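General statements about sequence and structure are easier to judge against a single worked case. In the encoding step, the backbone of a single protein was reduced to a row of integers, each denoting a local shape. The record that follows shows the chain in one-letter code together with its fold in token form.
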Amino acid sequence: MQRRISWLVVAATATVVVAFVIPLCLLVRTLAEDRAMAAADQEARNVAILVSGLDDDPQLARLVADIDNRGVPTTGVLTSDGRQLGAAGVDLAGDPEVRRARDGEAFTVVDDDGGRVLLPVILDSGTQVVRSSVAESDLHRGVAQAWAGIIGLCALLLAGAAAVAWQLGRRISEPLREVAATAHRLRGGDLAARASLSGTDETRELARALNGLADRTVELLAVERAAAGDLSHRLRTPVTALRLDAEAVDDAELAQRLQDHVAVLQRTIDAIVREARRPVRTDLAPTSGATGIVRARMEFWRPLAEDQHRALTVLLPDEELWVPLAEEDLRDLVDVLVDNVFAHTPEGTALRVGLHVEGGAEQGRAVLTVSDSGPGLAARRPGDREGSTGLGLDIAARTAGGCGGDLTIGTGDEGGALVVVRLPLVRG
């Protein structure tokens, strides 16, 4: 906006300046011509008076020569008997304009060669012609300097207008940039960010609208979180009753199966409560470092792997890979994949976890692989009911898909299960 305002003001100023400069330059040129021709006309008239008063006087030639030697303009006289007085280097007798004036016509000529004034002086002895001329360089003397001054003044005017326009545009654009910066902070999760009320009336109104939107967003998120948390807490009572009923079942196998189902339900409710209590800012444009989180979670699982005599191999890149997931979501994703191996493979089964970049660091994806040397499972699409790999991997698939990634399941090089999660990369 600042640049556009500056260009607009400069363009408008330039249009006005050009509209005045061109006529002014033409006027200066015309005034210079009129000044030079007026001087030539005046000198021609003065010489004509001398010629009419000193027709046969021998001093006339000297007087005309003195006048001609004074400089611009050049003046000469062609007498009736063909003698030329003054105007050395000019053949007046052969000049067609002089012959035209000898017929009794007084006139002025301005062309590419300069300007000339011719006056006939009619006496008893005949017609004598006075010719006063100005060269083209003298006709426009001082015009170039005047034009340079005018153009320089116009350039200064345009520079001043550009400076004023730049400052004016800055006063308008800076408050808008502050509002935009506040919007970016809100998008990044800083719900306490508010725009300052400054600038033009429209900018202040925009800032008030953005602040009101932020306040309303905070209120709605708080209400939604409270409602989800309250609903989750209400579910705990019937789940507890269900657990007690399951313990009262006489069939041991059925009781154990019911206990397992109740435990899964309990973990799901706990996850909902934990999600409801999470600060709302973690849901807005979340990012997290995958390398650091995977390394930390594998250190958490390593003691259990050692207790179960599992060979744990972790391959991580040196640089941090940033993905569009909240830290808690990424930790849960890694835990689900690792827990799936511990829950569905016998003790002593090797576990391999890797993280690498696929497709380049700018537009590529972070690839998380979890494989084992267990009995394996058939490749399937997450969410299929038949041959399901369980609720955990379904949740992991939804988590990956929610940020533009995907989860695939297959068979690893060692014959066991292979889970591959691809997540888009973002700038840290």
